[in-house]
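Hey, can you fold this one?
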Amino acid sequence: MNVTAGPYTESHAHRDQGSFLLHQGEWLAYDPNYHSASGIEQEEALHNLVRITSAGQTLRQWEGGVSTMQAVQQGTGWVHFAADITPVYRLNGDPPVDRVQREWVWVDPGVVVVFDRITSDSGTQQVWQLNSPVQPVINGTTATFTNGANSLKVQRVIPATATSTTYDWTQAGFSDGYRLDETVAGGANTFLHVLSFGSVVVSSARSDSAGRQGVQVTLGDGRVVSVRFSTTGVDGTLEIRNAAGAVVVNAALNPGVRSLPELAAS
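Sure. Predicted structure:
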């Protein structure tokens, strides 16, 4: 998994602050530039983020803004990232975007919980999007991307209702590629998705507690993962129980960028 957040200083840079990529054997969540003629398409629609539109037009990220990594921390079998993307929307006057924040929690061997806080004015739309080289199969709140022997399952836990559609990138002159769009009306919204490789996840269900929004995820090895996020800022919790029900991880997901260990070259 790769996540992107930081200085956006060049006009030719991609407008991909807050996006992420996932690969397992093959690309499962990717950048459609892979299938473009030029490889230099910058637009938000090509990246795995929450796109905000007004009157049918995408509200763009502006160079000169600096996304902030609010949290980076790691424990045994898990990693937590948090980023505030709001500044890259606030440089060109007073756009109808007040908050764009995202958190990721990775749990081995291949589960990502993605939580978004998005606030935009009435009349806008918010589109949670995921690009992939393969067309998703949408079944209710779950979309499955299968690329050869590898697959990615995307379950929307929050909001309960959204309009799910698929965009075919060949309509825009690309040689291949698709985008899953989940659209809701503007306002103060949160999104929570569970993404998982193959059959790692057995089930996911919303599980709020102590004023936080969250999810309980049951894994194929019997572990139960509970992740909860504050709706106001980085202040969450992570609990992992083993197959016997004993708590093996009980961690606070709080602000602070920690130094992570680097793997030595071999």
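Residues 2-199 form a domain with the Beta-galactosidase; Chain A, domain 5 fold (CATH 2.70.98.70). Let me know if you want another pass with a different chain boundary.
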